[in-house]
Structures are given as C-alpha cells and as structure tokens.
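Deliverable D5.2: sample structural annotation.
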Amino acid sequence: MARPVITNKIGVIVDSFQVGVKEGLRKAKEAGADGVQIYAVQGEFDPANLPPAARREWKDYIASLGLEISALVGDLGGHGFQDPAQNRAKIDKSKRIMELAKELGTDIVTTHIGIVPPNRDSQIYETMHIACEELSRYAHEMNAYFAIETGPETAAHLKMFLDGLGSKGVSVNFDPANMVMVTGDDPVQGVHALKDYIVHTHAKDGVKLAEIDPRNVYGQYGYEAPALDHEKIAEMAETGQAFREVPLGTGSVDWNGYLQALNDIGYKGYLTIEREVGSNPEADIRLAVEFLKGFRA
C-alpha cells in the first residue's frame, strides 16, 4: 500500500511525560506537538480544584505556548458505568469535566465506560445504556462529545451499543493499539465500522502475545478480576505475557492502512500520542511525533 498523506494535527497526552501538567505542556511543545490532552479526573485539573480564574489562567498559558487542547481525559476508572450504585456520582462528575472542557476550548472528553456485555438483555448492559443515554443527551445539548476509547470489545459490538443511544453525544476515541493488543480486532475495519462516531484518536502501538479475556484487563462488575486500574494495565503492557505496548511504528498496528482508513472516512481530528510505559517516555514521544510527521506531505 502507498504511504498515505495526512493533514491531521498531532497531539500528546501531557500526563505521559510523568512530570506534572505545566512541565508536561512545555515538553509537548518542545516535542513538536500541535495540541495536548490532559487528565481532568483528579489533581490540579479536577474540575473541583479549578475555580473560574484558574481555568482562565490555564487556558491563556496553553495558548501562550501555541498549543490547543485536543481533548480532556475524563476516565473515572473502576467499573466504568457498570455499577448502578456509583453511576449517579460518576455521571455528575463526567458532566463537570465536559463543562470544563468547553471552558478550556475543546468539545471532547475521552473515557472508558467498561466492557459492553455481549448480551443486550443483561443487567450490566441496561445499566450502562441508561448512564450513557443521559451523558449522550447532555453532551449533544452542549455540542460536545463524550468519547469512548476502543479496545475492550470489538468495533462492531461497540457500534451496536452506540446506535442504541439516540444521539451522538457519546462517540468514539479510537485507539488502534488497544484493539490489536486485547481483542485482536482489525483497526482498519474498525475505523470503517465506527466512521460515524470517531471524534478523537490515540496514536499508540502494541503487539498481542497470547489470548486474554478482556475482563482480565479492563475488569467487569461482578467478575472476579479487579476493576479498571491504569497502573495495572500499564504494568501488563510493559511486562505481561499477553500483550505489550511498544514505541509507535514498531508494533502490529498497520499505520499505512489505518491512516488511509481515517483519510477515507474524512477524519480531520487529532492523532494524540499516548505512551503509558517505557523508561524514557519523553524520547518515545519525540520519536512518535516524528513518525507521524513522516506521513505529512
């Protein structure tokens, strides 16, 4: 396949630098990124910790660096939206993160909602549907997107779930590496399946070494495995026996095919680099920026 030519902006998840938000923003600029994604779940970017003046200061500081915000991360961990006892608080916090995103100049918040169960008649499926229907409606009304990250289930199954929500406020943050590492789903086919929903992407790469039950990676309410924990997943991706996250361009993601598929569906949004493992994430991120810039004309 011929090398596709892209015009997409390149982003970096600030937290991947592991040096705090302010220093991470500077490093993202130095690495040549056009924009950044920032975790807004806890710490200095938790909406509860950001009064209006602080929000304006951060927005001005990011703009002063010549950066945009591609999205905020609003992933609240645990069982996503599978536990009805926790959903009210999680839905309300997700709304606050969406409001913060709009104030900072982005329409997108990315998240994990938990694995969509195969059985549409299950209680977990119903619980997730009710929560996501409310969040989709809220996002749609404010011209925003609450974007589910791909990986825990196949693209076809995720599309079926999204089609049932009644609006596109809940949409997709496409991560090709999660697909190749866990379900073994094909990102190229996945892009075409989810073409109506993709509003943001993560640029990440990986390899699958063995079969693994997605519930043992992402957890599931009522299942014996632990709930979703990013540190646990990062450990699995670095030293586990089932899959590994690797530097961009060195794994199983077919970048020519994947980027061509994004071109084919008319995706114009960000390719945002995520590096969750490795002893020198800054070096890996810089190489990833250069790798993606290699697809520009």
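Annotation notes: The first strand starts at residue 10 and ends at 13. The chain has one domain: 10-294.
The annotation will be released with the project's public dataset once the embargo ends.
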